[in-house]
């Protein structure tokens, strides 16, 4: 007597969709998160000449997102809490990351949920 397990095709389809999640994260979610995080950090960065703000970048490599600023004085301006700025603030990148962390987490959950539902 032969029997067919119910729902196997559905499970296979969901597993196939789940297998695509890492590529979707690399090609869609991480670049969108990087662009958004950089834009927010640039809005918070102290501006004198604009060099620091304009040195911002993001990249996705090996499944990781890196956001930063290449200006020589970036780390000093970011970390100096004792300096008052007319425009912007210290910890500009950290604050942007904290502000957007929940949105990125929700997007990651939505991508995985979409794949398994």
Mean pLDDT: 91
Query: What percentage of amino acids are in beta strands?
Result: 5-15%
Helix content bin: 55-70%
Sheet with most strands: strand arrangement: 1-2
Content-based structural category: mainly alpha
Question: Low-confidence spans: pLDDT under 50, at least 5 residues?
Answer: none
Largest β sheet strand count, sense and barrel closure: 2 strands, antiparallel
Number of domains: 1
- Helix-strand string: HHHEEHH
Cα distance spanning the termini: 32 Å
- Count of DSSP helices? 5
Rg over C-alpha atoms, rounded to the nearest angstrom: 21 Å
Number of beta strands:
2
Shape, per Cα inertia axes: elongated
Keywords:
single chain; 117 residues; mainly alpha; two-stranded antiparallel ribbon; 5 helices; 61% helix
Secondary-structure map:
Layout: H1 8-19, H2 21-44, H3 51-54, E1 56-61, E2 64-69, H4 74-79, H5 92-116
Antiparallel strand pairs: 1-2
């Amino acid at each position: 007597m032969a029997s067919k397990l119910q729902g196997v095709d559905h499970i296979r389809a969901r597993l196939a969709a789940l297998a695509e999640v890492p590529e979707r994260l690399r090609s869609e979610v991480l670049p969108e998160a990087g662009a958004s995080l950089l834009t927010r950090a640039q809005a918070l960065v102290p501006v004198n000449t604009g060099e620091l703000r304009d040195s911002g970048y993001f990249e996705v490599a090996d499944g990781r997102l890196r956001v930063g600023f290449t200006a020589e004085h970036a780390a000093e301006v970011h970390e100096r809490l004792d300096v008052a700025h007319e425009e912007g603030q210290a910890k500009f990148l950290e604050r942007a990351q904290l502000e957007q962390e929940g949105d990125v987490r929700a997007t990651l959950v939505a991508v995985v949920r979409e794949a398994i539902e």
